[in-house]
């Protein structure tokens, strides 16, 4: 088979490697029908995730068709269409029993494209298949489901739920990339008073507006602190969601919330940010971070089925498998190409 293989920072190739095989009874092999590229993959290419070793197949989100089933798999059979979650879960360790699948103690968590070979390939081995995949319901497309592998549950759990978004809240989302835009979609489920999106790219701010943001701010041309103060009577936002992953945006998120406000950090940080604790404690702020658990994936699937979410609206570019290097190039140059989510499909 062919796969997108990481060979060190800045170096990947679409190359032929051996097909994966069943290694444990709980494994399945999935033929990848649709796969996407995550911002985290770009962090890997920058060297921000040193645990990813040379020779690793990248990718942690895909939809496909089961081709081979391990002897201990109970709920799947060959021919089933499944969503592959970005998080694998043994289902029985302490943290899995708490619903903290991202912290799985028995070989799960974020492993695909990180600690084991991932989904940017023609075939992928999926461990703990019963608890790490979801059947694709009839009537839903690969593109709709693919967005539920990572960015929708991440934005919902680590951003909206950790930030405790409530009806009437002013919610500021910093970063209008795919995760930030997914946070717009999922924050709307809670009827906030206003959703404000901050970015430096006008095309992404336009996308945020189309997806439901009430106010968009280009931080290159507008003082964000002044703009947020003006719409909150000087108090600040109730919730700030950081969806970029650089020190400046984290510190901006902390500065934008009111006393008693909540800061939910989603961004993957490759450098240290300063926590101005001397200013934070007296303002009664709550700051959360987290790796997605995908506990909410079944709920999100139902919301897509009922038409309350349209995650396919995030897809802007489509490629065939043989065009994987081009897909990476387009996604990495998003400010030039206007890319949000790219989908690479079997043709």
What do you see in this structure?
This protein has helices at 39-46, 94-97, 129-132, 142-146, 151-161, 178-187, 202-211, 224-231, 247-256, 277-280, 297-305, 324-332, 334-337; strands at residues 2-6, 12-16, 28-36, 62-69, 81-84, 123-126, 133-135, 170-174, 194-199, 215-218, 237-242, 257-265, 286-288, 315-320, 341-345. The strands form 3 sheets. Strands 3, 4, 5, 6, 7, 14 and 15 form a 7-stranded mixed β-sheet that branches. A 6-stranded parallel β-sheet has the order 10-9-8-11-12-13, with helices on both faces. It has a two-stranded antiparallel sheet with strand order 1-2. The radius of gyration is 20 Å and the shape is globular. α5 packs across α6. The mean pLDDT is 96. It has 347 residues and is of the alpha/beta class.
What is the residue-averaged pLDDT?
96
Number of strands: 15
Amount of beta strand: 15-25%
Radius of gyration: 20 Å
Query: Any idea what the shape is?
Result: globular
* Coarse structural class: alpha/beta
Low-pLDDT residue intervals, each spanning 5 or more residues: none
Terminal Cα separation, in Å? 14 Å
| Element pattern in H and E | EEEHEEHEHEHHEHEHEHEHEHEHEHHE
């Amino acid at each position: 088979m062919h796969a997108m293989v990481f060979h060190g920072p800045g170096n990947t190739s679409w190359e032929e490697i051996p097909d994966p095989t069943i290694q444990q009874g709980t494994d399945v092999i999935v033929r990848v029908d649709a796969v996407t590229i995550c911002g985290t993959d770009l962090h890997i290419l920058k060297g921000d995730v040193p645990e990813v070793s040379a020779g690793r197949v990248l990718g942690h989100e895909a939809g496909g068709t089961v081709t081979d089933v391990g002897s201990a798999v109970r709920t799947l059979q060959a021919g089933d269409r499944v969503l592959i979650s970005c998080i694998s879960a043994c289902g029985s360790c302490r943290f899995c029993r708490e619903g903290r699948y991202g912290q799985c103690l028995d070989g799960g968590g974020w492993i695909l494209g990180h600690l084991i070979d991932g989904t940017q390939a023609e075939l992928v081995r999926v461990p703990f298949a019963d608890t790490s995949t979801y059947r694709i319901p009839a009537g839903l497309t690969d593109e709709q489901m693919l967005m539920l592998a990572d960015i929708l549950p991440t934005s919902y759990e680590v951003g909206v739920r950790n930030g405790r978004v409530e009806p009437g809240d002013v919610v500021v989302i910093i970063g209008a990339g795919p995760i930030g835009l997914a946070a717009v979609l999922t924050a709307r489920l809670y009827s906030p008073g206003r959703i404000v999106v901050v970015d430096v790219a006008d095309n992404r701010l336009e996308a945020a507006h189309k997806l439901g943001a009430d106010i968009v701010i280009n931080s290159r041309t507008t003082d964000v602190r002044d703009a947020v103060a003006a719409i909150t009577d000087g108090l600040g936002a109730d919730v700030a969601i950081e969806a970029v992953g650089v020190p400046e945006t984290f510190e901006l998120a902390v500065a934008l919330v009111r006393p008693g406000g909540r800061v939910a950090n989603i961004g993957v940080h490759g450098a240290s940010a300063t926590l101005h604790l001397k200013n934070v404690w007296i303002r009664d702020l709550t700051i959360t971070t987290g790796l997605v658990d995908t506990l909410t994936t079944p709920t999100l699937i139902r919301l897509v089925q009922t038409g309350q979410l349209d995650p396919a609206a995030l897809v802007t570019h489509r490629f065939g498998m043989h065009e994987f290097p081009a897909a990476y190039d387009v996604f990495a140059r998003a400010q030039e190409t206007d890319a949000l989510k790219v989908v690479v499909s079997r043709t």
